[in-house]
Amino acid sequence: MADFDTDLTQQTANYAALTPIDHLLRAAEVYGDQLAIVHGSLRQNWRDTHHRCCQLAAALRQQGVSRNTTVAVLLPNTPAMVEAHFGVPMSGGVLCTLNIRLDVEAMIFCLQHGEAKVLIADTEFASEVAAIKQAMPDLYVIQVNDLLGPEEDDYGHIEYETFLNTAEDLNNWVLPENEWDAIALNYTSGTTGDPKGVVYHHRGAMMNSLSNIMDWDMPKFPVYLWTLPMFHCNGWCFPWTIAARAGVNVCLRRFDPKVCFELIKTFGVTHYSAAPIVHAGLANAPDELKQGVTHLVKGSIAGAAPPEAVLAAMEKMDFEITHVYGLTEVYGPASVCVQRPEWLDLDISGRAAQNARQGVRSHLQDGLSVLDPITMEAVPHDGVSIGELMFRGNIVMKGYLKNPRATQEAFADGWFHTGDLGVVHPDGYVQIKDRSKDIIISGGENISSIEVEDVIYKHPQVLSCAVVAVGDEKWGEVPFAFVELRDGVDLTVEALREYCREHLARYKVPKHFSFSDIPKTSTGKIQKFALRNQAKAIVEAATTP
């Protein structure tokens, strides 16, 4: 037997830590003149983008940022957000992209829990920054005056462009010491009121950035429209993916169908990713906006199955939609509903049924299976037997920050437990049937039913409550709150809704309320399956002519 180990060691000449930073370095080296970022009147190539990322990294290191320092950003989809995805990890820091839709109390929790030392914030969030600074006076704030953002008085320690220009040594940036080093920190609501900090590593970010390319057969120089928030799972790793293909980041501060169609036509957008609400917004836009789109546009959809009407409208526009599935814990999409040639022979209803499934594992994800969570045995591929969807492999988080118990539970028996229940069809495609964690996916954002319930329970006139998901034509799903009131009180739905608005982010406020008795088991456990049926019946009755 030959010895394939002695003197055949890992060393500098034959090994380098995997990191998506290398995508930027190569894009600048090989395609420096290629357009990298479009934003308003800005046209920035890859050479200049690399230069600015080096400036950001060097300036952050001068400010004291080093390995494992959390650098948070509160930014819409702007050039600064693209640059942060490279400049922050090049400083050795860990990028924490705050969900801009959160209420300020939740933002403060994330910043304090992640021990952020620096915050890079857009002027759109001046009021939130004021509250954050009160709670965290030692936080170093960098103010971004985006060219399409609102004008605000100075509220940071320094302005972003000025901060970049403080960089003295542009070679003062680093690659990770180990590909297992943290690159990003993303907060997810999970099933509790307090968000959980999901830690990404350089290896996983690199792997998913490449998996995106292979799953989508993405060619060189794609033109990518940022309809997906970059704060959400680091834009599903697409800031790094686009650099790997030397593509164009077409920035978008907020979704607007008219603006999107203008950008698609002007810059020849080839790809975009989004929640169902964005796809529906494009599909339902006036026909005059769609005129002039003469090339194939590829979109990916996640969060809920693409409705038949949306798929039909997209096909009419010559948009090709791919359904993907994942969670924050698996870097965004980690499975894909690979479309088969034979599906083209089906009618639109048949194709919609096939595309509604979560599909198969992504190229660089080691495993996706549906297992009995008790026995850990795979369920039969019969499309009927229910189990829990589980992932394992390179595209799985390091774990939850400062939460070893949750990490251990999530990784029990060598798999990441998603909490989503589903089946496997005879062709091997996975499909979700229910969410055991009672997460509500509204407009692509996760809402913890427990968090909403906790707020409603605190109202002095509420005796009991339960929140479930109900289908919604615009948002995919919305919260429906069932509420039992204390005897003798007089509380209106509008008053309770206003109370929720005061204590929750707007998108988490229930769209529907029902004051009624809540069904419970003999042991007092709320029967949420019954409430889901009730919610569906109430909404359908209200919308039936």
TrEMBL record:
SUPFAM superfamilies listed in its UniProt record: Acetyl-CoA synthetase-like (SSF56801)
Annotated Pfam families: AMP-binding, AMP-binding_C
Keyword annotations from UniProtKB, A to Z: Fatty acid metabolism, Ligase, Lipid metabolism
Domain of life assignment: Bacteria
Segments crossing the lipid bilayer: none
Keyword Protein biosynthesis on entry: no
Residue span, AMP-binding enzyme C-terminal domain: 451-525
Keyword Flavoprotein: no
Domain AMP-dependent synthetase/ligase, first and last residues per copy: 26-401
Annotated NCBIfam families: PRK08162.1
Sequence similarity: Belongs to the ATP-dependent AMP-binding enzyme family.
Name listed for the protein in its UniProt record: Acyl-CoA synthetase
